[in-house]
Automatic annotation (TrEMBL):
UniProt keyword Magnesium, yes or no: no
Alphabetical keyword list: Acyltransferase, Transferase
Organism: Amycolatopsis roodepoortensis
InterPro entries xref list: Plipid/glycerol_acylTrfase
Name of the molecule in the record: 1-acyl-sn-glycerol-3-phosphate acyltransferase
Enzyme Commission number(s) from the entry: 2.3.1.51
Length: 224
């Protein structure tokens, strides 16, 4: 019931309040497996996609968000589940494989799944080199990839603000990308990189961001 509540009640209310400009939503296939590949500008990007995609979309979420105790913990887990989060452990290579497997299950069941190719939020506003997990999923499942460009979401919740404010937001869903020509080659690192770069170029064309051909580094990281 909660996913239906989010989609048909909360979604329209949020769109009416914040009035995002939504372009190309018809590019999202109504049925069948599809990967949404957005740029990543802000922590609220996931919510923006949830409320504008017009289809239930699954995302990866930290497992600890689902393990809270008591009524508050149960409500939080239920709400996040309703938003489409799939709990996964994070922090090591094994967790990364588990995350990809969780995403693959959604796609194999004909669902829609969103993954940020950059891997983390862009802190400088530029579009950074994509990680190949998005390509691995597309090649392994045959899912089409819809590039997504988010603009203005970084202004929704400035530092120190608990409630998102109204800001000019644009969400652009691009034409689906079909990689069936690479069927059976999902284990090739070169093919995965080529597919990822094609996806990133599509996002770049939609977003108009400056592109940086290196993985994003947070200020406290010494390596990508």
């Amino acid at each position: 019931m909660l996913p239906l509540l989010v989609r048909f009640v909360l979604g329209p209310l949020v769109r009416a309040l914040y009035r995002p400009e939504i372009r190309g939503v018809e590019n999202i296939p109504a049925t069948g497996p599809v990967l949404l590949a957005p740029n990543h500008r802000a922590a609220l990007d996931t919510g923006v996609i949830t409320f504008t995609a017009m289809r239930q979309v699954k995302f990866l979420g930290k497992a600890e968000y689902f393990t809270g105790r008591g009524l508050k913990g149960k409500l939080m887990a239920g709400f996040l589940g309703g938003l489409g989060y799939v709990p996964v452990e994070r922090g090591n290579a094994q967790a990364g494989l588990a995350a990809l497997e969780a995403a693959r299950k959604v796609l194999d069941a004909g669902g829609a799944f969103a993954i940020y190719p950059e891997g983390t939020r862009s802190l400088d506003g530029r579009l950074h080199r994509g990680h190949t997990g998005v390509a691995a999923l597309a090649l392994a499942t045959g899912a089409k990839v819809v590039p997504v460009a988010l603009s203005g979401t970084e202004n929704l919740q400035p530092a120190g603000k608990r409630i998102p404010r109204r800001a000019k937001i644009t969400v652009t869903y691009g034409a689906p990308l079909d990689f069936s020509r690479y069927e059976g080659q999902d284990s090739s690192p070169a093919i995965r990189r080529s597919v990822t770069d094609e996806i990133m170029y599509a996002i770049l064309e939609l977003s108009g961001q400056e592109y940086v051909d290196s993985y994003h580094k947070r200020p406290d990281q010494s390596a990508a």
